[in-house]
Specification:
Blueprint lengths: L2 E3 L6 E3 L2 E3 L9 H13 L4 E3 L15 H13 L6 E6 L17 H15 L4 E6 L8 H13 L3 E7 L3 H14 L4 E7 L19 H10 L3 E5 L27 H17 L3 H10 L5 E5 L4 H8 L8 H8 L11 H6 L1
Parallel strand pairs: 3-4, 3-10, 4-5, 5-6, 6-7, 7-8, 8-9, 9-10
Antiparallel strand pairs: 1-2
Bound molecules: NADP nicotinamide-adenine-dinucleotide phosphate (NAP).
């Protein structure tokens, strides 16, 4: 599989990362093992999880994904071949109130890493992310705790997720002043369609022009784009046809109708799936972007892996870029002009 440099670390990672959010929950153990085996057979080495997947489903606790990966690594004996990423900060507090999470204090991080290493059956994490930017603990505390983990050899690289660009800049300046390790990766929501103007994304952050501009300029951070297929939205005939329940109407806009139509047209002309065009689009930017795949079947995985063979022509890229009313996800020219 093609590789991409992680930030400016000199470390090459797979250009498609395998997400495992539903491994051990919606996808049972044997299905999860088959997906990881297939990804590795295709040359993939970059696996993404978190210490809370997927606590929000039924009676699951949030241990399932890491535990399933840990068992697979043990059975396959391939820990050294895999670049393993996990995250902390959004694990529910046992017995806590609804919506009460561990957070990103030093104490919470020390507890979180211990749990992740244990479930994954490893002595180190290759890339450790703060899962969201809660803003309730000072960044100094979180970054200082991450620096300790790197010093102790428990973590190789650090990253952030769901963080506004200006906060990334603040964090990097703090790290510089304190001699702490810098983020090498930022994991945000990213796809070809865009959330409608003012959509409520809760603590999640979507890749925007500002982040792309920042990273294209600095060139020392890699973007990991999650929920890239919008829960498989691109398989339907219209953005309104059968939306993923978690998306609600946040991607309903005339802007996206136009983008969707152009995407489908280009996919049909090439005879490939629209998913492959979405991944090819993400990887075509000047900023380095690695899509994080979310799949529940081998068919989906094979489809998405095949996107590595698709490289968009300048004409296709321009058509995709200019398909919408404007560059900001407004619903219409009228709404744009009011802004
Ligand atoms: N940092 C964060 O805050 C954050 C948040 C969310 C996710 N993530 C990471 O990103 C990964 C992916 O996220 P996600 O699951 O939300 O991604 P997603 O790509 O938006 O959704 C995955 C779902 O889309 C459908 N799909 C994907 N490829 C398809 C294809 N080729 N053909 C037809 N349907 C297809 C499948 O739906 P069905 O199963 O319904 O068939 C699949 O389960 C996660 O595993 C996790 O590692 C990170």
């Amino acid at each position: 599989m093609q590789t991409t440099e992680l930030g400016r670390t000199g470390t090459e990672v797979s250009s498609l990362c395998l997400g495992t959010m539903y491994f051990g929950s919606r996808v049972d153990e044997s299905g999860s093992f088959s997906l990881m085996d297939r990804y590795v057979d295709a040359g993939g080495r970059f696996i993404d999880t978190a210490n809370n997947y997927a606590f929000w489903i039924g009676d699951f606790t949030g241990n399932e994904s890491e535990t399933t990966i840990g068992k697979w690594l043990r059975e396959r004996g391939n820990r050294d071949d895999i670049f393993l990423a996990t995250k902390c900060g959004v694990r529910p507090v046992p017995g806590g109130r609804d919506g009460e999470f561990e957070g990103l204090s030093r104490r919470a991080i020390r507890g979180a890493i211990e749990g992740s290493l244990d479930r994954l059956g490893t002595d180190r994490i290759d890339l450790y992310y703060m899962h969201v930017d809660w803003r309730r603990e000072a960044l100094e505390e979180t970054l200082g705790a991450f620096a300790e983990l790197v010093d102790e050899g428990l973590v190789k690289h650090i990253g952030c997720s769901n963080m506004a660009t200006w906060r990334v800049v603040v964090a990097r300046e703090l790290a510089r002043r304190n001699g702490w390790p810098q983020f090498t990766a930022i994991q945000q929501w990213y796809s070809y369609l865009r959330p409608r103007y003012n959509a409520d994304l809760w603590v999640q952050k979507f890749v925007d022009e500002e982040l792309l501009d920042y990273i294209e300029t600095e060139r020392d951070l890699t973007i990991l784009g999650y929920t890239a297929t919008l829960g498989g939205l691109y398989r339907w005939n219209s953005i309104y046809e059968k939306n993923h329940p978690a998306l609600g109407d946040r991607f309903h806009s005339e802007d996206n109708e136009r983008r969707f139509a152009v995407l489908k047209e280009i996919a049909a002309a090439r005879g490939v799936s629209p998913f492959q065009i979405v991944f090819a689009w993400m990887r075509r930017h000047d900023a380095p972007v690695i899509p994080v795949l979310g799949v529940t079947s081998l068919e989906q995985l094979n489809d998405n892996l095949a996107s590595l063979d698709v490289s968009l022509t300048d004409d296709e890229y321009t058509k995709l870029r200019d398909a919408a009313f404007n560059r900001h996800g407004f619903d219409s020219d009228e709404e744009y002009s009011l802004f």
